[in-house]
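Sync notes, pocket subgroup
Present: LS, DG
LS reminded everyone that the earlier model was apo-only. Rerun requested with flavin mononucleotide included. Inputs:
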Amino acid sequence: MKILVGFASKYGAAKGAAQTIAATLKEKGHHVQVFNLTTTPQPLADEWEAFIVGGSIYAGQINGKLRGWVEKNETLLATRPLGLFVTSLAAGEKALVYLESSYPPSLLAHAQAKGVTGGIADPEKMKWLDRFILKKVAKVSQTKDTRDPEALRVFIDSFLKALS
Ligand SMILES: Cc1cc2nc3c(=O)[nH]c(=O)nc-3n(C[C@H](O)[C@H](O)[C@H](O)COP(=O)(O)O)c2cc1C
C-alpha cells in the first residue's frame, strides 16, 4: 500500500518516530514516503492510500502548519486508514489530552491508531529561548527522555492491523 507519513518536529523526536514507523511499514512491504509537513510545498494527499501524521507538542500545542495540512485534507483523511500521534515530554493522561486537542474530532474518531509516544528534550541542542522556557516552565535543565518504544510499537501494530 502507498502510505504517507507526515511529521512536524523541531529537534528530531517526532521525526525519529516518523522514521521508525516508516522503516517498519517498509519491512512489511509497503511503499512509504516520509514528509515534513512544515515545509513548502506540502505534499498532496489524494495520491496516498493510507496516512500517519504526528508532531511534537510545544506549550500544549501541535505545530500550526501540520494542523493546517490536516484540516485542509480532513475529508480525504477520514476515508483512508489513519494513524495519529504526538510526541511530548508528558506521558499518560496528559499526553492523551494533547493528542485529543491536536487533531479534528472527526479524525480522532476515525483513526485506527492513536499514539502518545513520549519525547526527548536536550537543552544543549536548543535555541536559547526554548532552553529558557523549558527550564522556567517545565523545570528541565538536563536531557530528559520519555520516549516510549513500546507505545510506538503498539501504535504501529494497530495501524498495520487496520491495513489488513
Ligand atoms: C519550549 C518548549 C515547550 C515545550 N512544551 C511542552 C509541553 O507543553 N508539554 C510537554 O509535554 N512537552 C513540552 N515540551 C517538550 C517537547 O514536546 C519534547 O521535547 C518533544 O519530544 C520535542 O519533539 P521534537 O524534537 O520533534 O520537536 C516542550 C519543549 C520545549 C523546548
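DG: Residues 2-163 form a domain with the Rossmann fold fold (CATH 3.40.50.360).
LS: The beta strands are 2-8, 31-36, 50-58, 61-62, 82-87, 113-116, 120-121, 144-145.
Action: DG to write up.
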